[in-house]
Specification:
14-stranded parallel sheet; 53 strands; 547 residues; mainly beta
């Protein structure tokens, strides 16, 4: 093996010419072609077959525009001090040879190696990308691809802290991709995509995906294997194909902004009951499809950040949905259920008691998302209004009704309790109104639909948050047991908080309540353990045959 240097003579741009090389010797498949700081002719043409390319430096960034460069087992190496890029708009061919490309990003922040054409990379071997810059920089990719490159049908392996940048729609449609080193990053410049049906993105290590303010779509199936992997998201990512694995996946966010993580395929087998989804801070949407995944089979969700369960962005559920029996929610995070229509999402028995946090939601939405221990039944209102209806068999530490009226129709939040009846001594009901445009029209309702023999007892009371405005909590349901709120009902000095009783069932107020607002009994029975249970005003209105 010999190392042959690119000539420093001006005008020697054709790599197939003897004039392009020191000593007039054209490198062969047994040689390394090397660029030094004295090498000239950065705009290159011509075909060349070599054992490998070594870019130690150059007087300028190197561009190879036409012809095929065929690389052998030594692959492509850039030194960390190179500080020059290589732009390939011809073809880099690796054949069937496995090789590693050891690349170094530049101080300018552009990719170390750019493959600009739709067919700029070919071969069937394993291509490993290594970052030899000595550091990881999320803004700098070591390789950028801007086309399908369907002629590369081998495997692309991303080693530790290596970053590939997708700069077009439909990148790398012919190969499988493996994340083989922690910190490996699949990044996009715009709203771009990569992969194809029949191909696989495999996480053999923890990785990162996405880029600020742009959607990245993965069209390949995703495999996570038997060890739980962490995927950190920089922004919105859609998984269009199936996900598989037996140990689950941890979803995290790289900063305190939101990410819409869309899981849009129904044929997934990502986790058994022994695996889990761990949802970290600021995962804004964890989308499901109505035909099943990811919520159709029993699994564990370990929520330490914020998890929104929906079907179509913040538009929410468009059809009723049921979590499978055996599904369990753990952790100190928040779960939000968002709806586009009057549909119910059902939570099975023994699914929510593992959510144990106790923090207050706070006044502002962002601060609230950073808080812990909440199951949030949200009624977000936009042009058509939003409705959140949830059927639960048990209660977590906190249930929050949150409404943003915005500028149009206000929202509806309804919590249906259909469990066997139980005492939840620490559970508190929070009402967090973030906009006072339509405060009187926001609907916050709790249904006690348990048996007549075993009541639902909420021991943590009710508390108001958000803006100051008149609000109402309606107690409903069919159960005639002594369903009760035994904790304090507190309006938190945010305006009148009224209590309305509806439906044929029974509710009991027994706390020393300090809310202001009228207590209205429209149907069924509302019992007060004392006059203090009716709040500081004590005003009561009883209609018809109610009592």
């Amino acid at each position: 093996m010999a190392t042959i240097d690119k000539s420093g003579t001006a005008g020697t741009t054709n790599l197939a010419s003897t004039a392009a090389w020191t000593g007039g010797v054209i490198p062969t498949s047994a040689d390394i072609a090397r660029w030094l700081t004295t090498s000239l002719g950065p705009s290159l043409t011509g075909a060349l077959t070599v054992l490998g390319i070594e870019q130690q430096g150059a007087t300028a960034n190197v561009t190879h525009s036409t012809g095929t460069l065929t690389l052998g087992a030594s692959g492509f190496t850039q030194t960390a001090a190179n500080n020059r890029n290589w732009a390939e708009s011809g073809v880099l061919a690796i054949g069937a040879v496995d090789q590693t490309w050891s690349l170094a990003f530049t101080t300018a922040g552009t990719s170390a190696l750019s493959i600009g054409g739709a067919a700029g990379l070919t071969g069937t071997g394993i291509l490993s990308l290594a970052n030899n810059s000595g550091t990881s920089d999320p803004l700098r990719a070591i390789m950028t691809v801007a086309g399908a490159n369907a002629g590369f049908t081998g495997t692309l392996r991303l080693l530790t802290n290596s970053c590939i940048n997708f700069n077009a729609t439909g990148c790398l449609t012919g190969c499988n991709i493996e994340v083989n080193g922690d910190g490996a990053y699949l990044r996009n410049v715009g709203a771009h995509s990569f992969g194809a049906a029949g191909k696989t993105l495999t996480f053999n290590a923890n990785g990162k995906m996405g880029n600020s303010a742009n959607l990245l779509t993965c069209n390949s199936a995703v495999a996570l294997g038997s060890t739980q992997r962490t995927i950190t998201f920089a922004d919105d990512v859609t998984f269009a194909a199936a996900l598989s694995g037996t140990a689950g996946v941890a979803l995290a966010k790289s900063d305190t902004t939101w990410a819409y993580i869309t899981l849009s395929n129904a044929s997934n087998t990502l986790s058994t009951a022994s695996g889990s989804f761990s949802v970290g801070n600021y995962i804004h949407n964890f989308l499901v499809c109505s035909s099943g995944f990811p919520l159709s089979d029993a699994r564990v969700f370990d929520v330490t950040g914020f998890m929104r369960v929906a079907q179509s962005g913040i538009g929410g559920f468009t059809a009723p949905y049921s979590f499978a029996a055996g599904t369990t929610f753990l952790g100190t995070g928040a779960i939000e259920v968002c709806f586009a229509a009057a549909n119910i999402v059902s939570f099975p028995s023994d699914s929510l008691s593992g959510l144990t946090g106790t923090s207050d939601p706070g006044t502002y939405y962002a601060a609230f998302m950073a808080r812990s221990g909440l199951v949030l039944f949200t009624s977000l209102s936009f042009a058509t209004g939003r409705q959140a209806y949830a059927d639960v068999k048990e209660l977590p530490a906190r249930v929050t009704f949150q409404c943003t009226a915005a500028t149009n129709t206000p929202g509806t939040g309804r919590l249906y309790y259909t469990g066997a009846g139980a005492t939840y001594a620490g559970t508190r009901i929070d009402m967090n109104l973030r906009d006072d445009t339509f405060p009187a029209q926001n609907i916050n309702e709790i249904y006690a639909n348990c048996s007549d023999a075993n009541p639902l007892i909420i021991g943590g009371g009710v508390k108001r948050f958000g803006v100051s405005a008149t609000q109402t909590l309606t107690l409903r349901g069919t159960s005639t047991a002594d369903n009760a709120i035994t904790g304090t009902i507190d309006g938190n000095s945010l305006g009148a908080l009224g209590i309305t009783k509806a439906d044929a069932g029974k509710w009991v107020l027994s706390g020393a309540n300090v809310h202001t607002g009228v207590t209205t009994v429209n149907a069924g029975t509302l019992a007060a353990a004392s006059t203090a249970a009716l709040g500081t005003t004590g005003a009561v209105t009883v209609a018809g045959k109610a009592s």
